Amino acid sequence: MFSKPVIQLITQRCSWRNYNGKAIEEDKKKQLIDFMSKVKDCPFGSIAAFELVHDSLDGKKTVPGTYGLIKRAESFIVGTVKKAEKDLEDFGFLFEKIILYATDIGLSTCWMGGTFSQTSFADKVALKQDETLPAISPVGYPAKKRAMMDTMIHLTVGSKRRKPWKDIFFNKNSDTALQEKDAGKYAIPLEMARLAPSSSNSQPWRIIKDKDRFHFLLKRSIKFDKFSMADLQRIDMGICMSHFELVAREAGLSGKWDTRDMGPLPKKTEYVATWVTQ
């Protein structure tokens, strides 16, 4: 899928909000478009589609988004998903693969989650009534120097400020922290899941290891209102799951997603899915 190890791509990728305006070469455009057309398989079977959109933003130099202003970007990855029960989780799962592929071919990106149904992006992809457009990403070449706002956001929500293992990974129940030594071969997939990007670096995922199963739960941050825009923390769950599966597969660890409920849940969490080792 990628020319470089996925662990390298995950640790290398970072969000860029200001670009140098250089057009993406035609061969790279073709590579990216071809990859986007083949990204289909997701845990819950949602139907998603992705396009490379060229938009000068009607002469505007910036576009507002969840993670701040985007400057001098001419190309955007735009994704749509057909409305379904776990559509946003699947959307995040697939879109993150595209983000990592863009990284693989030397392009920079930035997740922008929100409501884009009334924007020019929706018009360009002919958004249907039964679809949502929950996120986009600029794609291109970064400016030589980060803008002041970009630097502030990068320092505030960067990977160095990720939650530690004891706060998000648990063993058998939500009261016992999972130690790396007890995670076995899944220590690295879990670590790469920990490094997944999320809205405002909220890291809403909680993962409980129960013998041969890893239960993925959503614990919402009070700063997010799931009814005010695209439910960003569900997208975040999909990104986390994508990292986990990609790294597990690359390490030769076999497993599959089980979407049956795990039973009684820890307080203030929502069940998402379970990875069953094989």
Helices, strands, pairings?
Elements: H1 6-12, H2 26-38, E1 48-54, E2 62-63, E3 70-71, E4 75-82, H3 87-104, E5 108-109, E6 112-113, H4 120-124, E7 131-140, H5 148-157, H6 165-168, E8 169-171, H7 180-183, H8 187-194, E9 205-210, E10 213-218, H9 232-250, E11 255-258, E12 270-277
Parallel strand pairs: 8-9
Antiparallel strand pairs: 1-4, 2-3, 4-7, 5-7, 6-7, 9-10, 10-12, 11-12
What share of residues is helical?
A: 25-40%
Number of helices: 9
**How far is the N terminus from the C terminus?**
22 Å
What is the residue-averaged pLDDT?
Answer: 89
| Main sheet properties | 5 strands, antiparallel
Shape by Cα distribution: globular
> Which CATH-level-2 architecture of the largest domain?
3-Layer(aba) Sandwich
Which range does the strand content fall in? Answer: 15-25%
| CATH C-level class of the largest domain | Alpha Beta
Enumerate the spans where pLDDT stays under 50 for 5 or more consecutive residues.
none
The helix-and-strand class reads alpha+beta
CATH overall fold name of the largest domain: NADH Oxidase
Please state the CA-atom Rg, rounded to the nearest Å.
18 Å
- Whole-number total of structural domains: 2
Order of helices and strands: HHEEEEHEEHEHHEHHEEHEE
Give me the CATH superfamily of the largest domain.
NADH Oxidase
How many extended strands? 12
Q: Please state the oligomeric state of the protein chains shown.
A: single chain
